[in-house]
Design brief:
The protein is mostly helical. The chain contains 16 helices and two strands. The protein has one domain.
């Protein structure tokens, strides 16, 4: 009897401890959910019936591919073509779950009947929709699902037709897989040669680039533009203006830079139109997709540096893209060019960026840069001391942390420890970085005011 009472008390205390642990912040729900999905994906990929490779798939490689799929990165230690149709369907589902991200996964239960959840979880959903656009959690989630499935559906149909015309085997599934991969910014391809297989098919490149751009600008911007087209509003929001302008600057700026940097290298045998198209597609991909049509190791060193910068910045907020996001980069740029006022606010384009917004952008950028340096340092120890070129390790780290999926070809040759470092980097870049700004449920209140500390900074 006493043992039952003791066991019951232990179970009750454990449940209270777990509940207290998760009640500190919604970030724990996100981290736990993604970890569980990666674990399930790893187990499913280890099923022998889904693998056709010559060598058996190891647990490390399975965990790497599952993490890359759920974190919508696209880096792979084995060829995706070595999975059969069942394995590729599993990957497609994992990519879709990861692409929908925090909003529609961690908060989808809010729309299920018969369940009650803490009111604070509504705030987690609402951080993805700014004031004036939407405030109902149910409608937010449904909008996200509708936008995602509609865009992917249209893209899948068009790509399937184009793949059929190009003589691709299993063209229907290829259309679905690549539409999901492109919109979710995953970078996976079912072709043995990767997306280089269709490197010069102009219609396929244009449609794919469109899917990547739509998946990377953010659900807020898509919703805002639809409201403008329906004449529900007379102008788009300040956030959407900044996101679109920054995306356009980075997209076209990257295109011009790649065009001139590679015209005597990668594009020397192409005409002007083909060179411009390849430059545009390369600029689109470095923002977060990874469906590359050129070998990254053959790019000039300035192009690789530019790629690392674009991968670190990433795409739009509340999108499938990774990186620190274009709006964060905008705030950082403004901070460098304009001095905040006495209250820490900055006026720009007839709007005021509050001190809280500035501090959040600076905090996110500094933490992202610190984590990137940390992963790079770890890789230099595990693989740099065994002959890997530092430039390749930098590129690999930026690609993994920025959820891009481009590589100079060293992914499969990384040591086991190096692969696990990249796994952690992918998880941190896609999941952990997004949860850094989540507010804690309980905030500490200080009843005393400390004296001002003076520091010399110059």
């Amino acid at each position: 009897m006493s043992s039952k009472i003791y066991l019951g008390g232990f179970v009750k205390k454990t449940r209270l401890l777990i509940r207290h642990f998760f009640d500190q912040s919604d970030a724990w729900y996100i981290l736990t959910f993604f970890t569980v999905i990666i674990g399930i994906g790893t187990v499913l990929l280890m099923i022998p019936a889904v693998w056709n490779g010559v060598q058996p798939l190891t647990w490390t490689d399975a965990a790497f591919i599952a993490s890359s799929a759920v974190c919508v990165v696209g880096l792979a230690t084995v060829s995706i073509a070595d999975f059969n149709i069942a394995g590729q369907i599993i990957l497609c589902i994992l990519v879709q779950i990861g692409g929908l991200g925090i909003i529609s996964i961690s908060s989808l239960s809010l729309v299920l009947p018969g369940h009650r959840f803490a009111f604070r979880r509504i705030n987690t959903i609402q951080i993805f929709y700014i004031d004036g656009l939407e405030y109902k959690p149910r409608k937010i989630i449904l909008n996200i699902l509708f936008f995602t499935l509609s865009i992917e559906g249209v893209g899948a149909v068009i790509l399937a037709i184009l793949f059929y015309a190009a003589g691709v085997d299993q063209w229907v599934f290829a259309g679905i897989f690549h539409a999901v991969s492109a919109f979710c910014q995953a970078g996976f391809s079912t072709f043995p040669e990767g997306f280089e297989y269709v490197a010069y098919n102009v219609p396929i490149l244009i449609v794919t680039a469109g899917l990547i751009i739509l998946g990377g600008i953010g659900f807020i911007v898509i919703h805002d533009l639809l409201r403008l087209c329906r004449k529900q509003v007379t102008h788009i929001s300040y956030h959407s203006k900044i996101a679109l302008n920054m995306s356009a600057i980075l997209l076209f700026g990257g295109t011009v830079c790649f065009f001139f940097l590679e015209r005597n290298n990668m594009f020397q045998d192409l005409n002007s139109f083909e060179s411009l198209l390849q430059s545009l597609f390369l600029s689109v991909n470095t923002r977060s997709s990874g469906l590359s049509t050129v070998l990254q190791q053959d790019l000039t060193q300035p192009s690789q540096i530019l790629s690392c910068v674009l991968m670190f910045i990433g795409g739009g907020a509340a999108s499938c893209a990774g990186g620190i996001r274009v709006t964060t980069m905008f705030v950082i740029t403004v901070v460098m060019l304009r001095k905040p006022d006495y209250y820490g606010d900055i006026n720009i384009f007839h709007h005021r960026l509050t001190a809280a917004t500035v501090n959040k952008a600076v905090m996110c950028t500094l933490k992202a840069f610190f984590l990137l340096i940390l992963f790079l340092g770890a890789l230099s120890v595990t693989d740099g001391t065994h002959g890997k070129y530092m430039g390749d390790l930098v590129f690999e780290s930026c690609s993994a942390f920025g959820s891009v999926g481009l590589s100079t070809g060293i992914t499969a040759d990384l040591s086991t420890a190096g692969k696990w470092i990249i796994i952690v980097a992918m998880f941190a870049g896609r999941v952990s970085l997004m949860t850094l700004t989540f507010p804690s449920l309980k905030q500490k209140k200080y009843v005393i005011t400390y004296p001002q500390g003076s520091l010399l900074l110059e």
